[in-house]
Specification:
mainly beta, 11 strands, 161 residues, 1 helix
Amino acid sequence: MQHTKLTQEVDLTISHHQIQIRSRDFDEELCQWGEINIKQGAVIHPGYLTFDPIPDDAFGAWVKLALTETFTEDPNAQRRMVVPFDVLDPGKLELLSVMSDAVIELPLQEGRYALYFEICEDEEVYYRLTFVREGEYVQARFLMDDEWGGRAGEALAEGYC
């Protein structure tokens, strides 16, 4: 019996203020940031998400990915949000920034997930991406107050804005 891997850790070189998750081909138009996107720290398109990792410059950080049935908060989170993520093509699942990329090896199937994005700090900054299978619409929103302007329950705008 083969054991399915439900977690993955990636040492990602993060640059240009972006951590991207996608399940489709690269599209320059879906990478554009409007004023609202910059303010909220996220660009949300079907199957194509970009988050602002907050720290400036290029740096290496661990990104911890998980596929779970329910979401559990990280006590070290400094920012937390949930967004809808559509797996459009499981063969094109990637985690990337401008300087590095990795194939997402989780057993994600085509369909909608709630993707929880957390910026965490313990001895160093790390990121958590938790995928929870959803059958319904997921309202993109902040899940905690943070020092960069996020307010718990505040909706996040989707698309270029």
